[in-house]
Amino acid sequence: MPLTTLVARADGRLIGDAAAAGTTVTGATLRAQDVRQGDLFAALPGARAHGADFAQEALAAGAAAVLTDPDGVERPSLLDADVPILVHPDPRGVLGEVAAWIYGEPSLHLAVLGITGTSGKTTTAYLVESGLAEAGKTTGLVGTVETRIAGERLASAFTTPEAPDLQALFAVMLEQGVTHVPMEVSSHALSLGRVNGTRFSVGAFTNLSQDHLDFHRDMAEYFATKSILFDGRSTTEVVIIDSAWGQALLAPHTITVALDEGTGAEWTASDITSTPTGEQAFVLRGPGDVAISTKLPLPGEFNVANALLAAAILDACGVEPAQIAAGLASVRVPGRMERVNQGQEFTAVVDYAHKPAAVALALDALRAQTTGKVITVLGCGGDRDTGKRPLMGEAAVRRSDVLIVTDDNPRSEDAAAIRASMLAGARAVGAVHGGEVLEIADRGEAIRHAVSLAVPGDTVFIAGKGHETGQDVGGVKHPFSDRDELAAALRIHVEGGTR
Known about the structure:
By secondary structure, the protein is of the alpha/beta class. It has 17 helices and 24 strands. Helix content is 33%, strand content 22%.
């Protein structure tokens, strides 16, 4: 796109190279190390540095122009730069639109299905993708676990990529024949403008509970940020209304979802039953007297709510009820209530639960199907909301016969201090209501000990990291997978050996 067109559309001003009128940009990025010939380099202000300080690296790599703010223009690296500069008072806010224009506004030609909320985004996205596959659609997927383009897997750095990466991703999906894109939309992405420039065919809301209060001032701000998805950028809005947060999003055109049939929601479930293996069966009820018997290979009523939300999204996409039911029944969600089986005579589950409400819901679901003990391994991440740590310990110990407090991703914090905060919450519950509490710092050792305690009828629950394949300690990511560690411990247990 000609730079002059971008300047006019973005309502910015152009300074620098007198030949800028003939400059065309062919891509965009906000990382100097990722610049390709012809890119627009977005030099944004940051918490620790200003992107303009890396402009020379970007120009050497072939950047055709720079987008920055008035402060960035004054940085030494740009003062004498022989390059056109698009100056805007809010370059981060406008970057999504600019990137979308450069890549041909791909979301206008895709059905982008955005899912926001504290918990359930990943599971709902996989449920939607599974239903779309049953309907024969070619799908993309954008989320915490992975990004996929027509079946090809890419690693995910963020739940929602930065705006230029996201628009480029959409453009490639379009080239590869993708028609529908289930996508997780985080509060960080909404707050930082990563989805600006994206048109959503559907915007969906799961729930809200305490999380990310290291980023948001309070729950009111957290909810207001989530609400951005429902400011008109989504053609169809689908909301779970079992909570006051969901009800606050209601508008005349909202498609409503609820487990509680008394809410009058358009999508509900009835006759919910579960098996000892965790599979659930229920009748999916929707508009127009839709009533479909289906199964769900995931435990917990919260996953029935996720399935209802997915069904409403799929229906909005024109997927037939039978295809919806088949998609729900065949889904597999990595690291979300994922069973690990090596032939042991007890249940072993890995889940990503890393906030108090998610831990409580997951353990309630597992407790309902466990005849013996519930043995939980849980940690909290460093450099994140510190207020939820004692609440996590409390939620876990109330629902576990044995709670093993261990390390998650300590990052730059003292791991022992993180564990101490969790232990304080767990031990404050008291012996009457709480289970036995152990502290084992090494996560692998904690998992092995949990397995060693289990007997037939028990459930071992490894929570917090789910699909992750690394553990961040002091800024260094070490290879670590809860699934792999648990599988190895189970194999040794079944063989009767020790490690």
